[in-house]
Amino acid sequence: MLKILKYSFYDLIRSRWSYVYFLFYLTLGFVLLFLNNDVSKAVITLMNVIIVLIPLIGTIFGVMYYYNSKEFTELLLAQPIKRSSIFLGQYFGVAGSLTLSLVLGLGIPFVLYGLYRSNAIFDFTLLLVTGAFLTFIFVGLSFVIAISNENKIKGFGYAVLLWLFLAVVYDGLFLMSLIVFEEYPLDTFSLVATALNPIDLSRILILLKLDISALLGYTGAIFKKFFGTDLGFVVSMAILLLWTVLPILGLRYKAKRKDF
Amino acid sequence: MGFQIGSANIWTVCGTCENSSIKETILRAAPHDTLLIKKGTYKEFELLVDKPLVIKGIGYPIVDGERKGEIFRVTSDNVTLDGLFLINVGVSYTKDNAAIRVVQSKNFRIQNMVLEQLFFGIYLEKSSHGKVYHNRIIGNAVDEYNSGNGIQLWYSSDVEVAKNHVQGTRDGIYLEFSDRITITDNVSMDNLRYGLHFMFSNHDIYSNNTFENNGAGVAVMFSKFITMKDNTFRKNWGTAAYGMLLKEINDAEISGNTFEENTIGINIEGSNRIKYLNNDFINNGWAIRVIGACYTNSFKGNNFMYNSFDISYNSKLNDNVFEGNFWSSYTGYDLDKDGFGDVPYRPVKLFSYVVNRTPETIVLLRSLFMDIIDFSERVSPVFTPDNLKDAQPLMKIRS
Questions:
Q1: Which of A54, A81, B58, B260 has its CA 20 to 30 A from that of B143?
Q2: Which of B262, B358, B368 sits opposite A213 (nearest CB)?
């Protein structure tokens, strides 16, 4: 598995898209800091970008990579290598290289602008950690979708739909149900509904570090009480981890049974 | 005996002097005399000042009430208290014990005092034409029920409260039925409830004060003709904390104030004909939250910067005017270069309307879905008041 991981990783590191992705974050980081000159303000703007873009890029990259390297995968399958190590190796290669681009691309400008001297370092680390989680989660999900669909167009369609659902539609349904059931106590429901969607969960985790004044309004208190404490933080990290592990298990399961 | 100077005597009080007790010296003194209290500790309480005297401390002598009751009680006109350190006021559940109580007096002057370990600090009762100047009141209030207010004015008028520092009490400065009061250059912070609390008090001015990190910020209620100028309201965070809470306030002017990092900058309820001019709202959760029945207010020349919500409104009716404000989230353009944006700005987001209706929806703050919805609402308003807009938003920040 490590050999394949290494191969995929280096393959991607050398590819143009990784550089584009890396340069995109690099420019974004520099431009934000240049315009704001305030590390903590820049972290807020970055959050908006990360919450939307990372899942989207993770999804599309994952699907693209799977379909592009399909012939090579079939070649590998003919060799005496375990199936799971082929696919997991590819998965970790893609997710790892994307995460590297993210961390380096955002990290370099922030370090150059004196992140260590500002107190935003914890917020920034949290931002990168959730970004990494989101990358792993969405690359995993897209791999599962790609392996389940022979048809490229269908695969792409489902993957983009999944992103659209988790990034936009889920919140819409969530909002609707909150309004429809506004007569009932909704605290626990909204806590659970937030925790179930990795994008929402990451957003709330970062928000609680940033927009505290608004969220502390009287309903915000319950979120602060849960997500703001150490227990809440551990629980949310556990949920993100679960979201990462589930697609990997799905990938293994699908890979074992698929008929090539 | 004291020394004769003109018609007034000067009495020196110290531990080893002929006069070692403040209480007895007050009894002996004639009207318009001066008491000089030398450095030392005086364990005395319930000092009744019933004639016009000047009581002046030298090197901050300590008057320790030993938690037995009130320390000074002033019932005469023309009394000056200056430079004393009062500690240990008795806490009572039946009496509002104060470090200094002024009852039905005129022309009093309380200055340069330091008050610690107190219940109520300076309590002015039916008094007028006095000055409370440059005092330092440090409480250690923990619960609302057994703590008192720093400076309290009750049925008082024409008093000047200036350059005081109040912290750690229940309400920093409290006014009830007090008219024509001027409150300037005070700092009120870390109080349990309100930094400044107005009830039924008209024609008052407060300016250049700083209110920081109070339990619930500043409350101005049931009052008319109040001027609030150049104050700073900061870091009033909490589940029910406001930079400023206005309830039933009419004909006021609020100008040049700074509201920074509050959960709610100004919470307005039932307040009419108020002018909001040239204020700065920076990094608040809600800059302005209008709850209901607010008519003919005007908001002009204010800076709204980086607030999660600029304005929140809970009705579709709008009778308030927004004009020439700067909004950091304004995205319009200015083709004719007159400094005003060519497209009107709508400060009420659909999201703030939704949050008003169902508070739990605040979890969706800054989500992509809400941004999309807000955008479409901004293009064609359906739920938010149609005429609530700033037709002349400033392109550059008002400096």
A1: B260
A2: B262
Do B227 and B371 sit in the same domain of this protein?
Answer: yes
Q: What is the pLDDT of residues B130-173, one digit of tens each?
A: 999 999 999 988 888 888 999 999 999 999 999 999 999 999 99
A146: contact with B, CB 8 A cutoff: no
**Where in the sequence is the domain holding A118, given as residue range(s)?**
2-257
Structural domain count, chain A:
1
Same domain, B111 and B223: no
Q: Are B208 and B237 in contact (CB under 8 A)?
A: no
CATH number for the domain that contains residue B87: 2.160.20.10
Tell whether B253 and B104 lie within a shared domain.
Answer: no
| B3 pLDDT above the threshold of 60 | no
How confident is residue B261, by pLDDT bands cut at 50, 70 and 90? confident
B159 vs A55: CA distance, rounded Å? 63
Domain span including residue B305: 216-399
Is residue B158 within 8 Å of residue B182, measured between CB atoms?
no
> What is the tens place of the pLDDT at every residue in B212-233?
999 888 999 999 999 999 999 9
Residue B191 has pLDDT above 90, yes or no: yes
B281 closest CA partner among B301, B295, B296: B301
Q: Which residues from chain A sit within 8 angstroms of residue B261, using beta carbons?
A: 213
In a domain, B207, yes or no: no
Contacts (Cβ under 8 Å, ≥6 apart) of A72? none
Domain count along chain B:
2
Alpha carbon of A207: minimum distance to chain B alpha carbons (Å): 8
Q: Is residue B201 part of a domain?
A: no
Helices (H) and strands (E) in chain A, counts: 13, 0
| B382 falls within a domain | yes
Check: CB of residue B33 under 8 Å from CB of residue B56. no
- Does residue B1 register a pLDDT over 50? no
Please state the separation of Cα B286 from the chain's center in Å.
20
Claim to verify: residue B155 and residue B223 sit in the same structural domain: no
Distance from CA of A188 to the nearest CA of B (A): 10
Does B263 contact A217 at a Cβ distance shorter than 8 Å? yes
Kindly state whether residues B186 and B228 are assigned to the same domain. Answer: no
Minimum-distance CB partner of A48 among B238, B286, B366: B366
